[in-house]
TrEMBL record:
Region (A): 1-346
Keywords associated with the record: ATP-binding, Chaperone, Coiled coil, Cytoplasm, Nucleotide-binding, Stress response
InterPro entries, alphabetized: HATPase_C_sf, HATPase_dom, HSP90_C, Hsp90_fam, Hsp90_N, Ribosomal_Su5_D2-typ_SF
Protein name: Chaperone protein HtpG
Amino acid sequence: DANKETLGFQTEAKQLLHLMIHSLYSSKEIFLRELISNASDAIDKLRFAALSDESLLEGQGDYQVQVDVDKEAKTITISDNGVGMNREEVVEHLGTIAKSGTAAFLESLTGDQQKDSQLIGQFGVGFYSAFIVADRVEVHTRKAGSSADQGVVWESHGESEFSVEPREKVSRGTSITLFLKEDSEEFADDFRVRSVIKKYSDHIAVPVMMLKPTPPPAAEEEESDEDVVDVPEYEAVNEATALWTRSRTEVSDEEYEEFYKHISHDFEAPRSWSHNKVEGKFEYTSLLYIPQKAPFDMWNRDMARGLKLYVQRTFIMDEAEQFLPLYLRFVKGVVDSNDLPLNVSREILQQESSVDAMRSALTKRVLDMLGKLAKKEGDEYGQFWSEFGQVLKEGPAEDFANKEKIARLLRFSSTHTDAEAQDQSLEDYVSRMQEGQEKIFYVVAENFNTAKNSPHLEVFRKKGIEVLLLSDRVDDWLMNHMQDFDGKSFQDVARGALELATDSEEDKAEQEKLQKEAEGLVERMAKVLEDKVAEVRATARLTDSPACLVVGDYDMGAQMKRIMEAAGQ
Ligand code: ADP
Ligand code: MG
């Protein structure tokens, strides 16, 4: 065929395909979840596009996914009447991986199948999972609104190349046929497939239809009617109501977890969730999830973030960023508003006052959910913190209104444990403060060991006063925005002249005596270091080290300086 074109997969796509086939083998049934999830996404997209152009529906507005199995042919076909794809889109979406962070992800793989399968899960499994069970996949698709002759077939054996060619398609949407491998023929079995769909796709809002099981042979007298042609009858296998519209008591944990996997493209179950229906001035339903693991691109500026937005149960957009602040960018979920117009755009969202109100309510929900997690027994919160703590530390700078709430959620390393794990809360610190101690002391350094061994800590260790040990990149930034906690102000131990309220009269006398004795030395040193330092001072703060550098009260912190220098300032 002159119109058939053979193309190579993008290198990253090829690598991912290979990995998928080889490390997800033990959970191969997930391919069905992925393909149904894509079908449902495609229907959501069409439903949205049809809001402004009804002609796209071609007079057929009953959305559904259909699954057909053929035991003889050893195939399973997943069809949808969603938005479909044109030739260009097929090549782009099924031949390349556009996701940011793909290269970094592939580099992080270890070669250990078990570990890698977890990582792939986090990355998102997607369409290529079809090749876990199939050695040939055929995608026949046509974009909604285009003519039947615009249909395209994409075909591949899941190795290094795929082909595309035109083929007429009367109905809009996509039909994906999997030619099953010998060891996966179970997926051509009606009963087996039904149970997988029940398990993974109950929460999908469109019906997933399968052929009704053939009824037992009818009694003879009824069979005589020769005019009746057997029209295959289909029935919905899943529940097919949008999960968030159901009441909390009706939804099982498994369903919440599966729904999370569908919207987040995550492989693992979420750490926790919060499902709420709000009535009153603004009416909306939200279902928010905290993932277990940080995504690969959490530090990438264009990482996918935000909630899935619905208006009166109609899907409007993915990644609606306006509903949560940046420091909660790891939260996944759905918000379904009753008040926003169906034709709402990103621009409109930015100006809507109801969106601001929802954003602050949703922010509180997430912070409360985290507060609850922190109170839970065990190490749940510790695990959360090690994945997302650094992002949460951006909170006090971004969200003045919730500073206090966020501060309670922060965790630090401190001289109390002298361990690198960040597991001490400010409340813990305050409860251990010494009598007369008015400040919360901290030191910032470029890494944990430097912080822990800072000469500035000597006097504190001697007096048994706890100091927070900060060494994350964001810590200087964070501390610039933390004025006080529980009425106690924060004090960088490397800044200015340090007066400890716990200093006794004796300490003070000693300091004075020391200053007198060292007068000559201090003068000489100040001369030598004239252009390098602002001042030389004798101190009783050091017990082991001969000298240390101190930053002025209003100067930039040492770490901030490094960041500015790295940025070329
Ligand atoms: P993801 O769903 O995370 O985007 P997938 O690998 O599952 O990634 O799918 C890749 C892309 O292929 C989708 O984003 C979509 O553009 C396209 N696609 C897959 N399945 C369908 C379908 N049934 N209908 C229309 N487009 C689809
Ligand atoms: Mg997908």
